[in-house]
Amino acid sequence: MRVVSHEVSFVDDLPKQLTCYAYQPAEDGSSITTTTTTQGSAVTTSIKHFDKRGQLYKELLSEDGVTVEILQGAYFVKPWNACIGYTKKAPVGAEANEQSVSFWVLDLDGNLICLFQNGIFTQRTYYKTYTMSVDAKNAVIVVDESLFAWFTAIIGLNRGTSYGIRYDTEGMKLPAAPPSATKRFNLPPIKEIGCPANPNFFNTYLESERVYKWSGGKLVDLSLTFYGYTRLAIKGDSPNLVKEMDAVLPSVKLTILAAECEDQAVFRKEAQTFNQGEIKALYGDWVDNGVNKFTTAQAIKGLSQSVSSTTMTGFVAAIVEPLEIKLKAWKDCSMTLETTEYYNDVKDQSHGRVKQTTFCILDKAGKEVPDSKQVTDFAYHMEQNKLTKTITFNDHDSSTRAQSQEITSINTGLVLGTIGSLKEQTEFAYDEQSRLIKETKTFPGTTAAENVTLETHYAYLELDNKGIAVDCTLPSGERQSSAYDAFGRPTASYLYSEAKQSWLPLVTIDYGPDGLTQTNIEYDYDAQDNELCRIESIRKIERTQEWDQQSLVLGNIVRYERYLHDTRQLRVWQTLDDQQTDATLTTYNTDGSIARVQTLAADESVLLETHFEYDLRGCLSKRTSTGQPDMMYEYDGFSRITRITCDGITTVNEYPANLLAETAVKAKVQAQGSDTSYELGGLTLDRLGRVKKSTIGGRSLDYSYSGSSRWGLHLLPAPNVKAPWVIEAGQTLSMTMISHHPYRVKGDF
């Protein structure tokens, strides 16, 4: 018995959704299932193809005249002891640059060991413990020998008789392969990178992750990440079967960015062997049988060649015997180390929770950069079904020490209150449905009498369309309300007018059958709450096999956005009273980065054209615009801009070695070919990345902060303004004006 139709009814006058199913079995055991979904005028059709094993390998999805083909499959490769799978998604008949293809490789335990997606490869290795191999020896029938069971069996009723089958087994532990990545790479001497996994269980823990790309016959490493683990005792009684049953939790993370490895030549040589002919020579019939199965029923025409050539080159490091990989050199601004420590005392109520986290930057010698270590401590206290978590940022500089608290309910997990670094307190109250009904904020003053308390109240009202309205009363007494439909989408917002004694709409939103915003109306009022104007915008979506288009009507102005599939171009233009204005044409690369931006006049002539080039790691390296000098960019290991060259002038940015802040602490300019540089200014940052001092044009400004606030307070030095001298009775007098100017500036500008 199979489903032939399925109907869903919605509230709020939405059209019903009817789904019909049709099944077409084939003689070879394969089958096709056609699903047609109709809702209003929208019709979506899905045609799924299953092979004789019942696995989905092809789907055709049609909507609004556009048909997208989705191909997928998996095949076990015995020589590699791995399972290779693929997914391909593209409009029917699309060119290669429109196709989205991804491949993945799983080991025998189901762990992802390699993934290719959007031109990026991800390779993983794992720590593995012992495998339990169990063999059944004897099968013994165990009968319930109670008196009642024996008596009922004699009289032939067999009532109360129960039995089961017990299998006597023998177990054997098979050791798994030892860790590989931490031994193959010449890592900094960090002894914590390891995994003390319990050998009594079969578990797998992520050991390393290598992210790279294959570009121009060269492997480019983007990042290397290595993980270490620690053991924690289990709280409570352990089963008799296992004397030690500890938990294994992550404790160390080493990240190496912009790594350069010495395996390039070896990797390239191995990769070059992966062509259609030599794969067959290496693995015999796998090409004839495997690739044909890999492309079930010619579902992916031409994909087999791409698997065996371009894409497969990136799989070599993951599938073939691991290569010896050495880093050429550890570099400054490229390595970070993170650690996590846990409470490990079963008698402590905080057992198993995070106790401390640290973060530091490593230099090119693999050692900690001075003053880069940041320590965060965690403390917990449980009382009356409440858990209080205290987070303390410990620092040798008292100005950057900060502490905050969070109180949560042990029973519900809801946040009951918080205390910020400035001692500001926030309390939350909820109704029986765990909805927020009251928020109280208290800002401390010099004395308790100077404390400022602000309360915000929330009320909930069920609407006729099964939606809900949330009324909010602000501390100022102003009332606001937001309405949501049954799907949780915002439909309107209101402001209560005391003058009109009624709710004034601010925004109303209507949705189309596709669930997207269709109509949006905004309202504005004068000081007497009389309506001044309303602005209505109407959104329309159109799709064809060649492009997708979105138009937004705003009065007599219409804004269009059209994306062309084959050329990956986004065209944006406006019409004013049916007269087209200038247009912007943006062309994208296959990885989603912008390749070119053109500004077009109404007659399609190019007014301005800008080209963008990127380095192997995806960072912008060159920008070229018509009529303007080229701009070149260089970066450090943390992808921060270090040099900008334009028209023979180079701007050099310097960053603190002990912080990952994006804010440059020094900038200077230098003409090409000249040894003379001019400093533009400098900043001094504290341990939280906030500006403590800025020097621009010889003038310095100092900033101070409270707690962990990002806002700094600065008192300008009192300027001495002298008035003209006054000579009276033979004496010379001077007048001095002293003024203080308090300013608040954001410290991370």
From TrEMBL:
<protein>
    <recommendedName>
        <fullName>YD repeat-containing protein</fullName>
    </recommendedName>
</protein>
